[in-house]
Amino acid sequence: MPLLSPKRLRTCLTIALLSGAFGYSGWVAWQWWQARRLQDRADSALHAGDLEKAVPILQELLALRPDHPETLLALGRAERRQEHFEAAARLFQAYLKAGGIADAVELEKELRAAQSGDLRQEKRLHLYLANDHPETNLILEALAQGYLVNFRIDEAGAVLDRLLTRQPGFLPARLWRGQALQRMRNYQEAADAFRGVVELDPDHDEARFALAYCLLTDVQPQEARTHYEWLAAKRPSDPTLHAGLAKASILLGQLPEARRHADAALALDGDHLDALLVRGKIELQAERPADAEPWLRRVAQRVPHEREVVYNYVQCLTQLDKRAEAAKWQERFQEIVRQQAQLKELTLQIRKEPHNPKLRADVGKIFLDIGNEVEGVRWLESALRADPNHVASKRLLAELHQKKPAPKPAADADR
Fold first, then answer.
1. What is the pLDDT of residue 351?
2. What count of other Cβ atoms lies within 10 Å of the Cβ of residue 294?
3. Which pLDDT score is estimated for 415?
4. pLDDT over 70 at 5, yes or no
5. Higher pLDDT, residue 355 or 230
6. How buried is 27 (Cβ within 10 angstroms: 0-12 exposed, 13-18 middle, 19+ buried)?
7. Do 355 and 119 form a contact (C-beta atoms < 8 A)?
């Protein structure tokens, strides 16, 4: 085999080097383009507040550039905002190792506390806002969540308004506003807030479900049914949606439709309370109290603190001339009315005195009395955030803990 001449060898080496250089340049260009494309998609999702969409994009971006500080920080923030605090902490640690700024991580610690309801750094965060901090939107978001956790509704509304002025397309702020109004039992304005979310994102199922519920509660069954139908088309095996359609139908006076939807819900969940209630109400409206009684009794025994349930059961028992039992449940109904009026008065007082732990403890006790442990604990914990030494709140939480059954001992591993 003839040897290559020096000139030909140099030419071949030059071509090889140029090919390698062009190949490497092409790979670098592709990496840059891919990163830029992912960054744009992540920024768009984050701007809209769609963290579930943003996180996997940021994870893909991080795989492309594992030690990129800005990507580590952005992904950590997204995880923290979703309350995935352990994942966020790992990412912030990696961010610092990659040369990140310590002050950014300190701010994230303050925002984590605030969004969880710990507002001890509230004044500091407001000072950041007064100085037009670069992360003003994140600070407003965390404060809004903290205020909502502590039922400081007016302050939550103020920071949400400011956030929406700066970022009109930020859907979580609109959703939180609706949830705040719903907790205040202002169903009409809550529906308006949820409707705004659905108009911007028709596939936002959480907002659409909340909108349907508020419309139904505000006795607007026609529009409520439209939204329940939309959701049921996507999730036909969800009994709660069929029960919502049943409740809308009965309000519209469409008893056969109400029965069909209630039966569909019960076929999926034989103990679904709303569906059982609708079946009882159908029989009552058809003037068949004897047929209504078994349905309503099942619901009343399960949720004896629900106003609508107890009211309908009293009507049924009265029509059946079961006077003694009707009188007992009538007393229960009057107690529910009293408790709801007391709750309304207390929540109005709390809006005026948001740092008063006694008012918060009183609300928590009422919720515990009516069997709503989750809401009761939430209020008692908020009282302790206002005053860590509040005796009544500590006592009620301790009593609740004592009532819970002790965990069963672990099985012997050798058996």
1. 85
2. 13
3. 37
4. no
5. 230
6. exposed
7. no
Amino acid at 60: E
Mean pLDDT comparison of 59-73, 81-95, 167-181, highest-scoring range: 81-95
Q: What is the pLDDT of residues 122-166, one digit of tens each?
A: 999 999 999 999 999 999 999 999 999 888 888 998 999 999 999
273-285 and 307-319 helices cross at what angle (nearest 10)?
Answer: 30
User: Which pair of tokens denotes residue 68?
Assistant: 């990129």
Q: What is the pLDDT of residue 412?
A: 40
Amino acid symbol at 243 = A
User: For position 414, what pLDDT does the model report?
Assistant: 40
Residue type, 170: F
- Alpha carbon separation from 315 to 258, 343, 345 (Å, rounded): 20, 25, 28
Phi, psi of 202 (to 5 degrees): -60, -20
Query: Could you tell me which of 98, 104, 58, 64 has the C-alpha nearest to residue 78?
Result: 58
Of 29-33, 73-77, 410-414, where does the model show the most confidence?
A: 73-77
**What is the 3 state secondary structure string of the chain?**
CCCCCHHHHHHHHHHHHHHHHHHHHHHHHHHHHHHHHHHHHHHHHHHHCCHHHHHHHHHHHHHHCCCCHHHHHHHHHHHHHCCCHHHHHHHHHHHHHCCCCHHHHHHHHHHHHHHCCCCCCHHHHHHHHHCCCCCHHHHHHHHHHHHHHCCCHHHHHHHHHHHHHHCCCCHHHHHHHHHHHHHCCCHHHHHHHHHHHHHHCCCCHHHHHHHHHHHHHCCCHHHHHHHHHHHHHHCCCCHHHHHHHHHHHHHCCCHHHHHHHHHHHHHHCCCCHHHHHHHHHHHHHCCCHHHHHHHHHHHHHHCCCCHHHHHHHHHHHHHCCCHHHHHHHHHHHHHHHHHHHHHHHHHHHHHHCCCCHHHHHHHHHHHHHCCCHHHHHHHHHHHHHHCCCCHHHHHHHHHHHHHCCCCCCCCCCCC
Tell whether the model's pLDDT for residue 263 goes beyond 70.
yes
**pLDDT score, position 180:** 84
Do 322 and 330 contact (CB within 8 A), yes or no? no
Q: How many residues does the chain have?
A: 415
